[in-house]
Amino acid sequence: MISANLFPGLEQLANAVLVTDRELRLQYANPAAESLFDISRRTAMGLPLQSVFDNPAPLLRAVRQAMADNATYMEHDLELATPGRARIHLSCSVTPADLDGAALLIEFQQIDQQLRIAREERILDQTQANRVLIRNLAHEIKNPLGGIRGAAQLLARELPHQHLQEYTQVIIKEADRLQALMDRLLAPSRLPQYAEVNIHEVLERVRSLILAEYAEGLEVRRDYDVSLPSLAADRERLIQAVLNIARNAAQAMHGAGTITLRTRAARQVTLARRRHRLAVQVQVIDTGPGVPEQIRDRIFYPLISGRESGHGLGLTLAQEFVAQHLGGIEFESSPAGTCFTILLPVVAKEELMGARTENSK
């Protein structure tokens, strides 16, 4: 094992650093590496590099390339995980060394934050595009609807039997229903009405609505952190956002399964290009079959749905309502279930209103 005194500067370095010998046995890990990978250098020293990580193949490829070239090799997007820990995104540089048993110096830098910021920027752009698409689509649907309704009225006058007119009434009523939906989509959006809101009151309202819709077979569990502070928020829009997600979960499970509503505090988070000291995390976790692989990258797009009867607007609206609170929404899914996570920053009402004004320009 290489003494920490050999690399005094690495002890204070914020980036994680590992040093191996020529047989790729671990010889040194700085404190940042111990923290990042949840390892102890006292117990890990001498272990083969591949035994430290659950998925060492990408790292070993970078190491072998550096050794073959006898030059520093950079890997800009690497996923690594140690036993019992989730995978983390990293960039790393592998540098050959020749000093008292040290053969390779490997430096890691986390890029999860950069990836999250890039993803949030894409979501903001996508939300704007969704809004335009929905309004354009509603406009295009309105005109044919008027023609369909008018034709049904004329046909009703010509039909000789009353029972045949029942069919035209169905056409007229459904056309009126769609017309009302299009009018709501085209109407100027109601500005959010921000006030002090308890997030658990929002979730309790969602829970009661979901259980009313699915009275049998569905269990909705609570896992609340009751110490969370109140939010400046539009209560009705938060209810609608969480309800859309929970309703999708119930539908995916055909009304039989478990939904867990969980709240936690999140600290030092970056949302909508802003850094926040504190945010409220809301998770909607289901035991359903998971989001189909083919739509995961487009799940927040309008008219994208995993169900044949789905209209694909629920998650689009949920994303927009969360964005109006300077928040973010993302999900993780597997065949064992799906977890949607909403992050809402704890900010003053004036900051939300200022951001709303800025975004409307």
How would you summarize this macromolecular structure in one to three sentences?
By secondary structure, the protein is an alpha+beta fold. It has helices at 8-11, 31-37, 41-44, 49-52, 57-69, 112-158, 162-186, 199-213, 235-252, 314-323, 349-359; strands at residues 16-20, 26-29, 73-80, 88-99, 102-110, 195-197, 218-223, 231-233, 257-271, 274-286, 328-334, 337-345. It starts with 7 loop residues before the first helix and ends with a helix.
Detailed description of the structure:
With 361 residues, this protein is an alpha+beta fold. It has three domains: 4-110, PAS domain (Beta-Lactamase, 2-Layer Sandwich), CATH 3.30.450; 115-186; 195-359, Heat Shock Protein 90 (2-Layer Sandwich), CATH 3.30.565.10. The chain is built from eleven helices and twelve strands. A five-stranded antiparallel sheet has the order 2-1-5-4-3. A hairpin with a 2-residue loop joins strand 4 and strand 5 (102-110). Helix 8 (199-213) packs parallel to helix 9. The protein is elongated. The mean pLDDT is 83.
SSE inventory with pairings:
Blueprint: H1 8-11, E1 16-20, E2 26-29, H2 31-37, H3 41-44, H4 49-52, H5 57-69, E3 73-80, E4 88-99, E5 102-110, H6 112-158, H7 162-186, E6 195-197, H8 199-213, E7 218-223, E8 231-233, H9 235-252, E9 257-271, E10 274-286, H10 314-323, E11 328-334, E12 337-345, H11 349-359
Parallel strand pairs: 7-9
Antiparallel strand pairs: 1-2, 1-5, 3-4, 4-5, 6-8, 9-10, 10-12, 11-12
